[in-house]
Structures are given as C-alpha cells and as structure tokens.
Amino acid sequence: MSSDVRFTDFKSDKQPTWCPGCGDFGTMNGMMKALAETGNDPDNTFVVAGIGCSGKIGTYMHSYALHGVHGRALPVGIGIKLANPDLEVMVAGGDGDGFSIGAGHFVHAVRRNVDMSYVVMDNRIYGLTKGQFSPTSREDFETATSPDGTDMPPVNPLALAYAAGATFIAQSFSSDSQRHTELVKEAIEHDGFGFVNCYSPCVTFNDVDTYDYFRDSLVDLAETDHESTDPADAKGKILEGDKEYMGVLYRDEDSVPWNERQGIDEDMSDIPDDAPEDAMDLVREFY
Amino acid sequence: MPEDLNWAIGGEAGDGIDSTGKIFAQALSRAGRHVFTSKDFASRIRGGYTAYKIRTSVDRVESVVDRLDILIALTERTIHENEAELHEGSVIIYDGERSTMQDVEVPEGTHALTVPLKRLAEEAGGAIMRNVVALGAACQVANFPIENLDEALAKRFSGKGEAIVENNEKAARLGQEYVAENYDLPVDYDLETTDEDYVLLNGDEAIGMGAIAAGCRFYAGYPITPATDVMEYLTGRIGDYGGAVVQAEDELSAVNMALGAARAGARSMTATSGPGIDLMTETFGLVATTETPLVICDVMRSGPSTGMPTKQEQGDLDMLLYGGHGEIPRFVVAPTTVSECFWKAVEAFNLAEQYQTPVFLVSDLSLAVTEQTFPPETFDMDEVEIDRGKVVDEDEVDSWLDEQGRFQPHFPTADGVSPRAFPGTADGAHMTTGLEHDALGRRTEEEEVRVEQVDKRNRKVETAREEEEWDYREFGDPGADTLVVSWGSNEGAMREALGFLEERGHDVRFISVPYLFPRPDLSEEVAAAEDVIVVECNATGQFADVLEHDVLERVQRVNKYTGVRYKADELAAEVAAAITGDAGDTQEVEAK
Ligand SMILES: Cc1ncc(C[n+]2csc(CCOP(=O)(O)OP(=O)(O)O)c2C)c(N)n1
Ligand code: SF4
Ligand SMILES: [Mg+2]
C-alpha cells in the first residue's frame, strides 16, 4: 500500500450535512486519519455505516462503503471481512444503532472477534429522529419520549463489550482529535475486533452530555498507571460508575482473530468459471 | 406382484427412526432400485410419533402414495397412525416381547410378525441394534438380498470401527433368520435388484451441492427446520473450496452477513424458513436497492407464526413475491423436484449476479425431507455454467468513471445492469446506500434521479424477462380441455395423479411452474382450456390469485414515484391521457 495516501483521500466530495459543531465531524476526521496512517487506501478499505446522523459517515467518506439498514452494520462488516480478509473493514454507527436495535449483533460481533474495527459515535441521544433518548442516555434525561427521564440505567458499552469477551476496548472523544486518531489506529492495528466508543456530542438535542461535560470529566488513561492488558485493572475502570475514561481500557495481546483461527484467508470473490474440478466427488458422496 | 413396495419404520422421536430408514433407503439404492422417501414427524426431539417411509421401484418414483406394504412398528401408536395405509396382506414387524407391545392388535387382514428385536440385538452385541434386526427381518419379508443392506451398514458405521460394522451385519442376519425360521408368509414381494448406480439425496442437500457447484463460497444462516440441512451440508464441505459457513446470532445478522460477503464479491447465500424470512425482510429492500447479488433460500414450512414447524405448506408465495416495504425488484424461483433443487440453485446464483438482484430460491418441507435416487449424471457438473455478469476489473473500471474519475456502481445502462467492481479494485472505490441514490451511489432526493434509478432497477427485470427463458414443465395430454397448474413440489404427485385421472376418464394437461417471478405467461394456455385448476399446498390459493391476475387485462396503470404526491391538475391530465389512450389514440399521446 502506498505510503503517500493522505487522509483527505478518504474524503468524498459530498459535503456533510451534520449540524455545525456536531461531534461527528471530529470522529470522522480521526477515522480517516487513522486509516491513512495505518497504510490503507480507499481502494482496499470498506466502511460500513449504520443509520443515524452518525451513519451518514458512509456517505462522506471515500472508499468502498455501504450504508445499510438500522442496526445491522456489524453483520455486514463481518460478511465483508470473511469474504475477503485482505480488505480493511471499519464499521461505524450511533449509540442507538449499536446498543439498542443492533445490541444483539454487538455482543456477538465482540465474541466473534473478527479482525476489524468498530467506532460507535456515542452522543447519548437519537439525533436523526430529532432527540429521543438512546440506550446510553442518563436515567434522568428528559426528552420528548422521556418527559420524566428514562427511568432506566444507561447501557455501559464498555462493560457490555468486556462481558462479551472483547479483546480490545477503547474510549475516545471526538474533539480530542489526536487521542481519538491514535485510539482508532490502535483499534485498526489490533488483531481482532477493535472497539472504540467515541463520545461525539450532539449539539442540537443533547444539552447534558456536552463538549464541556466530556472535557471536564474525561480522565485520559495515558496519564494514569492503568494497565490495559491487566483484566482486573480493566474491569475496575470499566465498572467504576462515577468516572469517565479516555484511552485503551482493555487489550488482549494474545488475541487471534476468529477468521484466522478458522483458517478463513481467501478472497472468496475468486472462483473458477465452471463447477470446481472435483465437483463430481460431491455427487459420488451420495452413493 | 406389485411394481412398487411401500415400506416404513415408525416409533418415537429419538428411536433412531431417521437413521434406520435412511440405511434401508441406501440399501435399496445400492441395489439399483429407485427410492422416494417421506417423513412423518413431530418437532420434538424425544417423544412423539415419527416415521420414515420409503416407496421403492425399479422405475423412477416421484411421489408417495397412501399405502403401506411393510411396516416396522417400534410402538403401538405407529400401527394406529398408519391404519389407513395398511391393507389386506400388509406385514407389520414388531417386538412382541416388548412390555408395551405384548397385547398389540393389528388391523384385520394384515400379517403380524413378532420378532424379538431387542433380544436378538443383544445377542449380536447390543440392544442399540434392534432397528437393524428389524431391517434384516424386512429383507426376508421383501425377498431382498441382505448383502445390499451390508453395504449400507458399512457406509453408516465404518467410521465407528470394523467390529461395529460386523455386529450390525450379524444383527441383520439374526432378524432375517428369525423370520425365515418362524414364518411362512403368503406374500410374494420380490425386490429385484439392477446394475444401476444411484445417488440418494434430499432437496436441501441438492441445494447445498448446487451452491458449491455454482461457486457459492459464503453462507450465513440461523438454524431452522426444514432449512437447517442446507447449512449442515455446506458446513464441512464449503471449506474445501475456500469458503465458509457462519452460524449467525439471528436471521437479521445472517442475511446482512451474506449481503456483506456479496458486496465483497463472493457468491453468497442464506437459507431459512418462514419465521426467518419475516425477520430478513427489511434487508431484502437493501439488497435490491444496493443492487447486491444474493441468493435467499426459503424452505417453506407450515405457518403462520411458528405454525406447524415440521409440516408441509406452500404458504410463503405472497410474502416472497411482494414482501418488504416499497417496491423490490427480485426473482423468485421454485424448483419442482429434488434434482431441480440442484439446478435451480445454480441458476439462482447466475441470475443474482447477472442482474444484481435478490433471488429467492423457494423450496419446501416436502423437497427438503425427501430422499430420492438419481443416476449420478443427473448432476453432471460439466453442465454447470457460471456467469458473473458485469464484473469489471482494474482495466475495465476506467470506462465506467464519470468525468471526475468516480466509479458509478448504479450507472443507468440500457439494460439496467450496472458495472460491478469488487472491493480492492483500483479506482473502483464507491459507496452505496439503502437511501435512494444516484449513479455514484450517493444519496439523492432529486425527482429525475429517483425515477431514473427506480426505472433502471425495474428495467433489469424487463431485460431478464426478454433474455432468459422462463418456461414451464409440461406433462399429460397437451390437447386436453382440463388444465392443471401447480408450482413447487407438487409436481411429482401430480404427474402420477395423471395416470389415476386417466383411469377415471379424465384427460389432463399439467403445467408445472418453476419460475414464479418473472414467470411464464400462461394466458394462452388458460384461454385454450375449459377448466383451469390450480393445485397448491395452502388454504387461499396464492398462485391461483397470481394466475388470475396475469390473465386479466382490463386495468390501465397510472403511476407516480418521484416521491411527490399527486396534484389535482396533474392527475386529471394523466387520467385523461389514459382515457384517450384507451380510446385508441395512444400513438398521438406518445407523440406529444
Ligand atoms: C428499522 C428502523 N427503525 C427506526 C428507524 C428510524 N431511525 C433512524 S436513525 C434512528 C436512531 C438513531 O440514533 P443513533 O443510532 O444514536 O444515531 P445518531 O442519529 O444519534 O447518530 C432511528 C430510530 C429506522 N431507520 N429503521
Ligand atoms: S442532530 Fe445532533 S447528532 Fe445529528 S447532526 Fe445535528 S448535532 Fe449531530
Ligand atoms: Mg446517537
């Protein structure tokens, strides 16, 4: 892969229609930088996006890309990677896409540990449908559909991932461009399923989980003595209710991607022009 | 001596009925006899009546009949369940020493053969072989050379070691000898053998084999009766050809994984049954609008809801023709026999890639569970052709770039089919989306582009209608006044029914339709017939509705799909044009 790929090569000429100030701009820029800096180019990259404001990312990036149905981006990404492991597969979507309608897929994608990355653009709200609560919204978060708060604890995406056997868990913040880019790069380079929960504030519908809130509350793990390879340390930080962390929370250095363990390593698009040569053996098996 | 023999083994689920039945079917097949099997079963794994039935003849058999000549009954209930099929002279083999079967009464006129299955099995090495003792007994009754059974036993048990095979052979002989020594039956079955070599397989296996032959390399699915055999067949085989089977967490995931693999360039499929089709439906629109080639197999079972999971029904036709919101161009292909399951699978992959559409391959429980014999050349792999459609490589990509050098995956060509660049192709990078999009795959709501894209997608179906053959299979008397039409697995039974109908003085022309969309135009055939009868396994006659729809020509269509509602003046103009067009000056209207 050419080293002269710049991150702008991953930009499409379509202008984003996100609200000015939306966190998704920063999230996307970091993803493009991370792809370029890990030696990928648009022709070997497949971006799969969910449905939501966040999901529009598939439209604004230039690469092979699919913007599918709400909540099903991860299975699409898995199918692509297994069918052609040479491709760099990155999946992105919202907190509703990933942890509500697609929650089942999230758990199983984490377990399956296929070699790909997943960036959730977590704004703790349903942006595209104009401001209903999301699975990561706080218990007392008031929206049109939760006038008295949700009355449910928010999903803890990091804990969900950990419980499902994740091999790479990170959290980033869209406005800390440098750290966000680094963390997505690490997710890409991780051998297995690299999960990054990226706080991408919605400036239009969420006046609680704002830039200021995240800037003030996020603790960068790089500035602590956190041992991301130590499960006990990781578990402690992930379950610590009253703190928000940025950085790699957990990393299994011995992770071997499922596709490799299964010996799935061929470009499946490459098939002969006729039935396989020994295909009559399949028939004879039925004697 | 009857030409065919109808044989069954029945008992409780968990009694090994299936595997025992299959062994006997294999023995018959090895002996060069044709076999057609069916199953009675409940969805419970243990408990509940289940039976494996075989119809065998030296000639081809395409159906089951309501008749049983030899029945191995492991439970008393088996006898009652089959009372209607038993007849004067039928032979019932059961273990009279079994505590639950000591006072069994068999229907009048049938012959009860009490064979101590368990005791003899123990003598041979273990009670587990009691079914095999029964098979030996059945060989004796049917006058069938037991060496053929040995071959089938070897095939089944050779993996477990020589000793196990020998014990089973011994068990079979003990059953055979017991009957020979203790009974002198007034029946003269004689299961002739031939030198033919047949293969024995079911519809699900045929679909799986067809998929591999056609180059399918990716399968994602979620287990469901009666489609699971497709997945189990592919597991352990597709890997030999560089492919993979994934058991997904649900059908939503399965169809989306399969879609992903197809976007990556693999020939890809998923298979399911009604409940899974329901779950997948949202994604069918995505497959169609992103123009992704995908084969979706529906092995139908009885619905609605969980319905009767192990029973036959052809109830999903409407769903497959019309399911999904919006308008989804698609192909619907329904093999009519077990061997056609193979060929239609091959065809489905070609159609999917040639036209970049979802293709529904529709089978049903009857085809899925029927094991049928075929000469191996029925599946002549040299006949398999692969057409990948408009795939463009690095060199060809150039001719499909717009003036700014961007690849156009949804370019509105004359035939509606756009170029397809697999990911990894240099300069082919492009996006696509379930949103309405332009030629570049980018979201749009512009009215002209919307209409252009809808039209180009629908044009693919029109192109296919013209380019491909959507023919039907015809049987019976072509000049008959009565036309019977059916689709899917009814073909075999209807073909044989033609003979019975003839005996009753009815001449019938029978058309069996394997293409449901696009489908053959039957208006002339319908017009030529006095009586038109549509046969299908459902309550409302879904195909009958379709046929009535096809032959009705009165309705003119006024359509708008720009995304903008009708306006009164515009609508008046459209309707007026339709009226005058109807009055015969269509040309004038078009010329304006
Ligand atoms: C099956 C289905 N149900 C509902 C919707 C409507 N819908 C679109 S996006 C969305 C929620 C998006 O929230 P999130 O994933 O957090 O993305 P965000 O807009 O916040 O980035 C919903 C409910 C849909 N497109 N499809
Ligand atoms: S609504 Fe919120 S999430 Fe959507 S674009 Fe605007 S700021 Fe971003
Ligand atoms: Mg959101």
List the helices and strands and how they pair.
The complex is a heterodimer of chains A (287) and B (592).
Chain A: H1 23-37, E1 45-49, H2 57-60, E2 64-67, H3 73-83, E3 88-94, H4 95-101, H5 103-112, E4 116-122, H6 157-163, E5 168-173, H7 177-189, E6 193-199, H8 211-217, E7 218-220, H9 231-239, E8 244-251, H10 258-261, H11 280-284
Helix pairs in contact in A: 1-7, 4-5
Chain B: E1 4-12, H1 17-30, E2 34-40, E3 49-57, E4 68-73, H2 76-81, E5 86-94, E6 111-114, H3 117-124, H4 130-142, H5 146-157, H6 162-182, E7 199-201, H7 203-213, E8 216-221, H8 228-234, E9 244-247, H9 251-263, E10 267-272, H10 274-289, E11 294-300, H11 317-322, E12 331-333, H12 338-355, E13 358-364, H13 365-369, E14 372-374, H14 394-397, E15 431-433, H15 447-467, E16 473-476, E17 482-487, H16 491-503, E18 508-513, E19 515-517, H17 523-528, E20 531-535, H18 542-551, H19 568-591
Parallel strand pairs in B: 1-4, 4-5, 5-6, 8-9, 8-10, 10-11, 11-13, 12-13, 17-18, 17-20
Antiparallel strand pairs in B: 1-3, 2-3, 7-14, 12-19, 16-18
Helix pairs in contact in B: 1-5, 3-4, 3-6, 4-6, 5-6, 7-8, 7-12, 9-10
Bound molecules: thiamine diphosphate, iron/sulfur cluster and magnesium ion.
The site of magnesium ion has 9 residues of chain A, from helix 4.
